[in-house]
Design goal:
Mean pLDDT: 93
Structural class: alpha/beta
CATH superfamily: Spore Coat Polysaccharide Biosynthesis Protein SpsA, Chain A
Radius of gyration: 18 Å
Number of helices: 10
Helix content: 25-40%
Distance between the termini: 33 Å
Number of domains: 1
CATH class: Alpha Beta
Length: about 270
């Protein structure tokens, strides 16, 4: 069914300067694992084992992380420290990894379009590593894959957000098909609270059908003069069907310092120590 997942990781991470001056924001550690590894583990858990990264300048550490470090392995072989590599060894064994570069930052839609050469003509997942999602039982992407098997259309993950946060997100309006699942009728990128069609905000998990590539190519720049994935998805919704799913789990906005600290505390108390 779905076996590929795209990670747009070309952003600069300016909210974490000066730390991100010389290291990718996706490599910032949440306790003992870099943020991007949590997303890749979620992808692999959902069965999306072919992982593609849309990278940019200064992102080589991501490729190095999902590869074997022979010198390090040799130095700690047979010691108690070797157990610290168990999780990444498991990811490397189960996944395959490919990379392409986005030469210019022109929005999430453009980043997705750059990933076409890695995806081809197949449905695929998208994970934005800034959003660390902990599912109640199954991971968020796994929940969405089960829905895709039933409906075979693009799906976005949404959550309710307070009014003072709405302008940070793409926001949907939709007709509720059943509890927590909506057929999208409208999407607006980062609206003012008074103009928002609902309080259901899109977060960084998507399943997209391959026709989205052609739609993005025809989508003019929108908010902030960037090619917005939200605009392309609205076109797709009007032509066919896009679903919004209120996922079961907890999301942390690790693109902000506050959210990153909250995620670190949560993972340390509930996962690392557990």
């Amino acid at each position: 069914m779905i076996k590929k997942c795209l990670f747009p990781v070309a952003g600069y991470g300016t909210r974490f300067l000066p730390a991100t001056k010389s290291m990718p924001k996706e490599m910032l550690p949440v306790v003992n694992k870099p943020l991007v590894q949590y997303g890749v583990e979620e992808s692999i858990e959902a069965g999306l084992t072919e992982v593609g990264f849309v990278t940019g300048r200064g992102k080589r550490a991501i490729a190095d992380h999902f590869d074997t470090n022979y010198e390090l392995e040799h130095q700690i072989a047979g010691s108690s420290k070797e157990t610290f590599l168990t999780s990444i060894r498991d990811v490397i064994a189960k996944g395959s990894f490919s990379y392409t570069r986005q030469s210019e930052m022109k929005g999430l839609g453009d980043a997705i379009l750059n990933g076409k050469r890695l995806i081809g003509d197949e449905p695929f997942g998208v994970v934005l590593s800034d959003d660390l999602c902990i599912g109640d039982t199954d991971g968020v992407l796994a929940q969405m894959v089960e829905l895709y098997k039933q409906f075979r259309c693009s799906i976005v993950a949404v959550q309710e957000v307070p009014e003072d946060q709405i302008s940070k997100f793409g926001v949907i309006a939709g007709e509720e098909m059943k509890e927590g699942l909506y057929q999208v009728t409208d999407m607006v990128e980062k609206p003012d609270a008074k103009d928002a069609p609902s309080n259901l905000a899109i977060i960084g998990r998507y399943i997209l059908t391959p026709d989205i590539f052609d739609i993005i190519e025809q989508t003019p720049p929108g908010k902030n003069d960037e090619i917005q994935l939200t605009d392309a998805l609205l076109t797709q919704a009007k032509k066919g069907c896009v679903l919004a799913y209120k996922f079961k789990g907890t999301r942390f906005d690790c693109g902000s310092v506050e959210g990153f600290v909250e995620a670190t505390n949560f993972v340390y108390k509930n996962i690392y120590q557990g």
